[in-house]
């Protein structure tokens, strides 16, 4: 009897990769899932930090998909290596700072290393030709296969009939007749296939949780680079860009004001790396101050903004503790800003 073939499926948490993996399981392939932790996926960041909007835990879609499929799931941290993809994408960016084509090439390349090290036979992705304008086009499919080094060990079960047969198909490990020839942006065929499999719950529209595709996040990242004077980041930087309200009242400093309890707790871990302000007389946020050359008026403004977002927002005065990085704390009483005094133009 022929040995059971083994494939690794790139699991994004969306429906397409779930279906692709499921199709392979149906063909008797041993499938395990891989999800890469880039530092830019909100599901991964929530899971890692324990911080959720409105303090309401949300599903980690990739974990959930793997659980539904009943497959082993591997999370691979690529935060450091991924930096070069974000900073210097050979194929450029999409609509925002999303280097999708380079990202896919990199991830498939990492999967290729993984299958070599773990004795697996091929790689499966949920890519569909024409689904995404930048990275999922007919022309980009061979580029991903070639530049990742995976070549014909990369199988896209949902679009396979639109592509040349891969090694798993030619060798008969996978029955090509049972693969699909989907193309285009419509989600209807995937939804129909999900219904056939009895899959009724899945992330909409495709499970994308990557903040690099988000205009607002891109704006914050660009602002961060501009004020640091270089295009670079550490993991903590990109994590904080995804947390709190970001306000830049002037070029000397930016405020990161926590929005809820879990953020406040988490951001307190950064007290030693930033100047910070905390309300004392009323429950309220922690504000991290990114900037070193603050004037006394800047400190007062930062304190008044912090008070504005505290439970003392309507009080005549709020007591706050202002703590310079590595310095002595100072307690002051401050009048909270009125809502209209927190200018829209400050928000990043
Ligand atoms: S959306 Fe983000 S994770 Fe997905 S391919 Fe693009 S850059 Fe990569």
Q: What can you see in these coordinates?
A:
The protein is an alpha/beta fold and 348 residues long. The protein folds into two domains: 6-211, Rossmann fold; 243-346, no CATH class. The protein is 34% helix and 16% strand. It is built from twelve helices and eleven strands. It has helices at 15-26, 42-49, 61-69, 79-87, 100-118, 140-148, 167-170, 188-196, 215-228, 235-240, 261-268, 296-308, and strands spanning 6-10, 30-37, 72-77, 122-124, 154-155, 245-250, 253-257, 275-279, 286-290, 318-323, 330-334. It has a six-stranded antiparallel beta sheet with strand order 6-7-9-8-10-11, sandwiched between helices. The protein has a five-stranded parallel beta sheet with strand order 3-2-1-4-5, with helices on both faces. α5 crosses α6. It is elongated and about 80 Å long. The N and C termini lie far apart (61 Å). The relative contact order is 0.12. The structure holds iron/sulfur cluster. Residues 98-100, 103-104, 135, 208, 210, 212-213 line the site of iron/sulfur cluster (SF4).
């Amino acid at each position: 009897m022929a040995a059971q073939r083994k494939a690794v499926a790139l699991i994004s948490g969306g429906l397409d990769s779930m279906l692709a993996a499921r199709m392979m399981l149906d063909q008797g392939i041993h499938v395990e899932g891989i999800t890469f932790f880039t530092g830019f996926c909100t599901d991964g960041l929530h899971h890692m930090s324990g911080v959720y909007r409105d303090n309401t835990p949300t599903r980690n879609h990739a974990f959930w998909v793997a659980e539904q499929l009943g497959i082993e799931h591997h999370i691979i941290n690529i935060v450091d290596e991924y930096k070069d993809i974000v900073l210097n994408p050979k194929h450029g960016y999409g609509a925002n700072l999303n280097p999708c084509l380079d990202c896919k090439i990199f991830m498939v390349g990492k999967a290729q290393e993984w299958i070599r090290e773990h004795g697996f036979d091929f790689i499966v992705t949920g890519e569909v030709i024409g689904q995404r304008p930048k990275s999922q086009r007919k022309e980009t499919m061979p580029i991903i296969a070639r530049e990742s080094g995976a070549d014909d060990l990369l199988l896209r079960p949902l679009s396979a009939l639109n592509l040349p047969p891969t090694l798993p198909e030619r060798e008969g490990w996978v029955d090509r007749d049972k693969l699909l020839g989907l193309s285009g942006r419509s989600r209807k065929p995937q939804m129909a296939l999900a219904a056939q499999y009895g899959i009724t719950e899945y992330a909409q529209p495709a499970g994308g949780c990557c903040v690099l595709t988000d205009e607002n996040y891109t704006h914050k990242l660009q602002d961060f680079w501009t004020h640091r004077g270089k295009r670079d980041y550490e993991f903590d930087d990109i994590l904080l860009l995804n947390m709190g309200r970001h306000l830049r009242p002037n070029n000397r400093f930016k405020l990161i004001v926590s929005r809820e309890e879990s953020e406040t707790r988490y951001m307190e871990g950064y007290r030693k790396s930033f100047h910070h302000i905390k309300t004392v007389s009323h429950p309220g946020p922690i504000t991290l101050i990114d900037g070193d050359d603050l004037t006394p008026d800047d400190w007062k403004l930062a304190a008044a903004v912090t008070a504005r977002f505290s439970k003392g927002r309507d009080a005549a005065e709020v007591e706050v503790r202002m703590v310079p990085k590595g310095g002595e704390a100072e307690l002051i009483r401050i009048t909270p800003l009125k809502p209209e005094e927190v200018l829209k133009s400050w928000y990043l």
